[in-house]
Sequence to fold (260 residues):
Amino acid sequence: MSADTNTGIRLQVFLAHAGIASRRAAEDIITAGRVSVNGITVSAMGSKVHPGDTVLLDGKPVQAEERRVYLALNKPPGYICSSSDPQGRPLALSLLPGEISERLYNVGRLDFLSCGLIFFTNDGDFAAKLGHPRSGLEKEYVVEATGHIPEELIQAFTKGITIEEVQYQAKAIERVGSRCIRVVLVEGKNREIRRVFSHFHLHPRKLRRVRIGLVKLGTLAEGESRPLTNKEIKDLLEFSHLPQSLVPSPQSLKLRSNTW
Fold:
């Protein structure tokens, strides 16, 4: 690698642009010693990649991808949001169109049993902004329970409830039926809805995410995916509550391809 550290691109940014992972996840990959630049293993932050450098991940060449891909998937239950699974469970990635050659990864997660809307991309910046705790993007779920959902659960979840020293609070809840509610979350902590339901000795029979920001699941069939439109990409970034300096310009969005 060139000795001039004032030029080039940070290694974690290069990996994100190559569709390997978000910047945050790329940092973990680097610190694990899985990346080499020009034959030298890099395990610390601060290294940069310059034109002509050879970058390997687990011994395989990595090249920055020029085309940016943004997909919305209706994930069925029984699929895991990960690039691999030691237990051999089916991957949501396997449902994406086979003609896409870019390496994609999920933006956020839906647990194994949950279903509904989730995004896949090879744009590390996009994934990092939407997945940031301060993004403020609303996520709406329809939850069907195994029994009657008590008003006590709705009120506690709306006002905020502490379970095992973790605070959970929905932005809004609407009752749809005796056993069904719509829940809007903003922060979206790990298994938040399931933990609240379990606290009230109740279990979701079906948990489906139907909206992220302004993007709705709509009539997209389970197991099917579609490209996000340029407007949807722009809206997702603009409606995330992040500093404007972190949001790509409309001009840069026009240069990105979201075709299949």
